[in-house]
Structure formats: C-alpha cells, structure tokens
C-alpha cells in the first residue's frame, strides 16, 4: 500500500509538470501560427512580441523548474526532529550480587547521518532512570532502527569449579572472577504507522525480567490513544541468505559510499595511522553506546582491511587507554561477526586469540564461539586451550561437547595436577547430566591424584550427597575441605546438604541459608535451599527425618 501511494504521488507530481510544459509549448506554437497568418503590419508586430515573450517565458520556466527539481532531489536535506523517552532502564546503582544488571543503553543503529542527543534523568534511590532523547534527521525518515545493549556482571561461578583450576595456570575462574556479558538487541520504530507528529514524543517503557535480571526484558510503546503495544526484539544483523537482491547490492555499495563520505582509517593492505588506531580503540571501549556503535561501524565498513588492526589490539600492539576491556572485546567480536556475514573470513588464529582473551575476561559465550571458529586442529595445539574451551562449554551449558573436549584434554601430555582438575570437571559434567556412577568415579580419581585439594574433596562429597550414597564418607571429606578453607561458602553449602541427606534437616537449613547469603546467584545453592526448606516444613524441631 505504501509503495502504491509513493508511485501515485510520483506520477501525479510529474504529470502536472509534464502537462504544464505541454500547455506552454502549445501556446508557443499558437503564437507562432498567428504570427505567420497575420497580414497587417501592426498585427505582425504584436504577434512577434507575443511569440518572443512566450518563448522566453517557456525556457525560463523550464530552466527554473529543472534547477528546483535537481536541488530538491540531490541537495536539499530536510531537517526533522524526533523526540522520545524510555523509562524503566537501570543504572549501575542497581547492581549488586543479587541483581547483576549493570548498564542498559540504546542508540540509533545508523551512524553519520543522524544526530542523537540524550539526557539521563536518574531517580534517586531506585537505580532506575529515564532516557530522554532527540534525534535530528536530515531526511524524511519513515523508520528508525535502534540498538539496545544490556551489560551484566555477576560474581557467580559454577559451584564445583569455583577454586578447581590446576596450579600454575592463569585461567580466569581460579579466583571466582566477575562474569561479564553483553546482550545486544535491535528494534524498529515505524514512524508512519505511529502517525508521529513533532508535537508529540515517542513514549517507551522497559520492563525487566524479574525471574532473571541478566536477561533482556520487554519494551512497550504507549500509543496516543492510551493503549500500549509490545515492541518485538529483532536480531542485530539479519542472516545474509534472507536478504533480497536489492539489499545485497546496497551492501556491496555501502563500503564505497562510506569511504567517500568519511576519511579512510585503514588502507587496502590493512595499515593505519597509529594515532587513529589508538583513538579507535578508545572509542570501542567507551561507556557510551553511540560512540561504540560508530566505532564498530568503521570496522564493519572497512571489512577485511580492519583485520590487521583487530589483531594488533588483541596482541596489545595498539597502545592506549582502551576503556573497559570487556566492552572493547565485545565490540571486536560483534564487528567480526558482521564482517563475516558479508563473506569475508577472519583468520582462524585470530579467532583463537579472541577466544583466549574473551575467556580471560570471563566472557565464556564469546570464548566458546571463537574456539569453534578457530577449528579443532588449531584450538587443540596446546592443552591449556583445551581446558579453557572445555570450561567455556561448561559455563554455556554445552555439556555434551564439554565431555568430548575434556577427554581430549585428559589424553594430552599434562601434569598430575592438571589431570586431577580435568577428572574433577568431567565428574561435575557427568553429575549435571545424571551420570552419577561416572561422576563418582571421576571425582574419586581427582581426589586420588590431588588429595590435598579442598575443591576436589568438596566435589566428591557433593557428588556422594546428590546421589545419596557414602554419606559418612561425604561428611568426612567436606570437613577436611572446610579445615583447609573454612570460609568458602560453597563448602559450607555442601556440608549443609550432606547433613540434610543424613536427616539433620534443621542443622542443614541453617548452613545452607548462611551460604546462600554469600552466593545468592549460585544455581545449585538456591535449588538445594528450596529442597531443604520444603523438607523442613514437614519436620518439627527436635525430631529427625528419615534418610
């Protein structure tokens, strides 16, 4: 319907223009004919003047109309102000161990031809803020695509892996690091469908997912009639196969157009000015979403010419204050994904490097993805890469694949301590998948190889407790672990669960509740707490429950 309206408007406008020209030329022809037919001298003088004036007017009008058409089509850029507001977003003030959300931002997807201004109005004491914005467009936009980014950080780690890495390794999980994650969504506002008028503001409200604050919630639009409608999230980059021929041609043309409209940063061979590289790295790690999107767009539009710069950043050859390293790596990863969607492939050794540095900042989702893209051969050259890859798979719940990588890791030439760690993690994975017999076997082997490891003692005790076997041995094992590390909350929780299995429900409940305060986002602890609380409601104080 919209295309038909545009076609009708075009035909109507050009039709009126064509009819006007035809009418003028018709008058010119009539005046010339009258001039030829005039017999009296004064008539000939009169019609000659008319003829000349009509000709002059005709060509002046044609010239002026052509000039106006050229200016309106190729030079004139109407400025349009579009106002809006988003309420319900969260600021870093709301971040805590229980609430992992640290930052939410949005910005228009297009860079360069749109000016975007925003004001954050923070509500004291709530951690919420209103995001008011004004967008200045130099064309009559009908749709605006926005990017929404939610950055999260939690202090959680998988319970049995919290302090379980081999001695001498530098893996990020060895000290329960913060997990950093960045989730990016896309949504489109159809101004034509909204009947947007400059006198009104686009009112949006964000509602977080209260069951999982780290997950992106929902976005709602308030209509002028008082009704509300949910805005559907879209993928940040549509798959290449779904694009039409016209869109593919535009994609092929855009890098050239971008290069014509802005100064080139990367040469064809990938070389670049060091100062420009340092500035770009700083922008990629900026706190402002708009700045990061613009910097990422430079990489995407430069295509494979930016790969050398990306590798230099990963190898720390670009010296600058890079802002937040997790944001920097996240933007590099997303830029590579978008470039590869255009058919240009990032080198496998680059994917391996990006996987390692992503792992070291606890971005396990990106680490697993880039380990996959690096390929089995390259990612398996060093045992430490296998251990990081396996841990990334465990963190992202790719447990079946983790088993295969762990078995390859255990088959490599590694130290006894590393082998104990591999057995312990494999036991953890077996327990998660319900293979309790195999889990016990692997955890026992881990304790045999490293009997002084509190983490491995805890792992075997917890496995016994979950299976409900060897509970006396489990209590002995967890007491040994607590003797070595008495303040570790995961070990306290394990002891509580062992006591629960022994029938000492109220003692167990006290321990698990204390542990849950210190590790509120640990999935296993919360699940065990619910189980023990349910059992405690059916047991009177001073009595013991059966096994």
Helix-strand layout with pairing:
Blueprint: H1 2-37, H2 41-75, E1 80-90, E2 101-108, E3 114-122, E4 128-137, E5 143-154, E6 179-190, H3 191-194, E7 202-207, E8 218-222, E9 228-231, H4 245-261, H5 274-284, H6 289-302, H7 307-314, H8 325-341, H9 348-360, H10 364-374, H11 376-379, H12 383-395, H13 399-411, H14 416-432, H15 436-449, H16 454-467, H17 471-484, H18 489-501, H19 505-518, H20 523-536
Parallel strand pairs: 1-7
Antiparallel strand pairs: 1-4, 2-5, 3-4, 5-6, 7-8, 8-9
Helix pairs in contact: 1-2, 5-6, 5-8, 6-8, 9-10, 10-12, 12-13, 13-14, 14-15, 14-16, 15-16, 16-17, 16-18, 17-18, 18-19, 19-20
Word description of this protein:
This protein has 547 residues and is an alpha+beta fold. The chain has four domains: 2-75; 80-236, no CATH class; 241-346, no CATH class; 415-547, Tetratricopeptide repeat domain (Serine Threonine Protein Phosphatase 5, Tetratricopeptide repeat, Alpha Horseshoe), CATH 1.25.40.10. The chain has 20 helices and nine strands. The strands form two sheets. Strands 3-4-1-7-8-9 form a six-stranded mixed beta sheet, with no helix packed on it. A three-stranded antiparallel beta sheet has the order 2-5-6. A hairpin with a 5-residue loop joins strand 3 (114-122) and strand 4. The relative contact order is 0.07.
């Amino acid at each position: 319907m919209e295309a038909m309206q545009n076609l009708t408007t075009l035909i109507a406008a050009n039709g009126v223009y064509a009819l006007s020209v035809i009418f003028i030329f018709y008058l010119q022809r009539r005046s010339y004919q009258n001039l030829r037919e005039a017999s009296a001298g004064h008539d000939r003088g009169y019609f000659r003047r008319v003829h000349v004036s009509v000709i002059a007017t005709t060509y002046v009008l044609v010239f002026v109309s052509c000039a106006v058409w050229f200016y309106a089509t190729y030079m004139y850029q109407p400025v349009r102000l579009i106002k809006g507001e988003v309420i319900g977003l969260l600021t870093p003030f709301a971040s805590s161990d229980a609430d992992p959300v640290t930052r939410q931002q949005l910005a228009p997807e297009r860079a360069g031809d749109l000016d975007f201004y925003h004001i954050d109005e923070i509500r004291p004491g709530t951690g919420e803020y209103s995001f008011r914005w004004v967008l200045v467009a130099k064309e009559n936009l009908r749709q605006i695509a926005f990017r929404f980014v939610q950055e999260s950080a939690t202090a959680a780690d998988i319970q049995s892996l919290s302090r379980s890495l081999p001695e001498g390794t530098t893996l990020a999980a060895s000290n329960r690091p913060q997990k950093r994650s960045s989730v990016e969504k896309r949504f489109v506002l159809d101004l034509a469908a909204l009947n947007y008028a400059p006198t009104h503001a686009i009112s949006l409200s964000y509602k977080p997912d209260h069951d999982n604050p780290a997950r992106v919630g929902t976005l709602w639009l308030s209509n002028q009639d008082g009704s509300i409608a949910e805005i559907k999230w879209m993928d940040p980059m549509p798959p290449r196969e779904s694009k039409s021929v016209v869109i593919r041609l535009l994609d092929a043309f855009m890098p050239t157009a971008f290069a014509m409209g802005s100064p080139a940063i990367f040469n064809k061979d990938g070389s670049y000015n060091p100062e420009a590289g340092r500035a770009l790295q700083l922008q990629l790690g900026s706190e402002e979403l708009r700045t990061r999107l613009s910097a990422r767009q430079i990489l995407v539009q430069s295509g494979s010419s930016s790969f050398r710069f990306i590798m230099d950043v990963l190898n720390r050859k670009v010296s600058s204050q890079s802002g937040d390293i997790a944001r920097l790596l996240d933007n590099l990863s997303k830029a590579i994904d978008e470039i590869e969607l255009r058919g240009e492939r990032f080198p496998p050794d680059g994917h391996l490097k990006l996987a390692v540095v992503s792992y070291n900042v606890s971005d396990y989702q990106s680490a697993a993805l880039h380990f996959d893209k690096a390929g089995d051969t390259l990612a398996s050259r060093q045992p430490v890469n296998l251990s990081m890859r396996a841990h990334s798979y465990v963190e992202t719940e790719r447990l079946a694949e983790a088993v295969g990588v762990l078995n390859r890791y255990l088959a490599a030439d590694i130290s006894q301590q590393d082998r104990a760690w591999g057995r312990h993690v494999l036991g953890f994975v077996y327990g998660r998948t319900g293979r309790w017999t195999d889990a016990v076997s692997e955890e026992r082997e881990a304790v045999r190889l490293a009997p002084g490891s509190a983490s491995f003692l805890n792992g075997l005790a917890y496995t016994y407790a979950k299976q409900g076997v060897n509970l006396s041995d489990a209590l002995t094992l967890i007491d040994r672990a607590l003797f070595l590390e008495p303040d570790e909350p995961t070990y306290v929780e394990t002891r509580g669960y062992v006591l629960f299995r022994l029938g000492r429900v109220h003692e167990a409940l006290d321990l698990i509740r204390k542990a849950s305060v210190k590790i509120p986002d640990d999935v296993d602890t919360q699940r065990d707490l619910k189980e023990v609380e349910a059992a405690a409601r059916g047991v009177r104080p001073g009595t013991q429950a059966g096994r």
